[in-house]
Write the structure tokens for this entry.
Amino acid sequence: MKTILLSITLLAINALADSFHGPPGLQLYSLREDFKKDVPSTLKLAKDLGFREVELAGTYNLSPEEFKKQLDAHGLLAIAGHFPYDQYRKDPEAVARDAKTLGLKYAGCAWAAHKGDLDEKQCREIAEVFNKAGAALAKHGIKFYYHNHGFEFVPHGNGTLFDLLMELTDPKTVFYQMDILWAVFPGQDPVKLFEKYGSRWQLVHLKDLKKGVQTGALTGHTDVKNDVTIGSGQMDYPSILKAAQKAGVKYYFIEDESPSVHEQLPQSLKFMREVKW
């Protein structure tokens, strides 16, 4: 009997090893236009699409308390949320209070303020803000994370300013979320980044970049129409997901910024259910 149970367990482990550990969550920014019209119906849409876990990007004119009630009423669990860089710089304790009210495990930053092209001086200033934010949030049991946005990969020494940011931030209190599109668009390889920084990556934004779009720009900006259904664009998702899984990524969120989000989300979910490597 023990041999049979062991065989079943090994089969289950092998099955998980070559497929996605889903289901993914949803970055609610994907439905930002819907939220402008009606918060409850938009949360219902997210739930009806099949999402359970979500990542926040604001509370759409509701207080954190009110938004948490709406999430609970629609059976959605907020794991993480993005807050403005200036809030972390000026008052990380306020971020911690709102994050706790919303029930978040993680509080993140999706854009670090800078002027012109990122340089070493600004990178060091950003790292200082992140370290202070990470330490402040850790006291409340919340993990701070930074979401790459493409402009951080300016060449620097033998690597990039993103490498310097990793080096300067405390691995015990500052974690990272890889936005796949904003790794590929500036010309980086997500697989190599997962391999290089391992467990520093705790979260992922699942996105795909339209085929034919030129990569290598460090602007952090591209037409939202270049955000396409996952699995239909430039990304090698089987390799990326395998590397993310090996790195120990804990949470995956689909983010679709395109005007075709309603059509693309179901297709992206279908791809994530079926993808194997």
Summary: The first helix runs from residue 2 to 17. Confidence is low (pLDDT under 50) at residues 1-16. The chain is about 45% helix and 15% strand. The two ends are 31 Å apart (CA to CA).
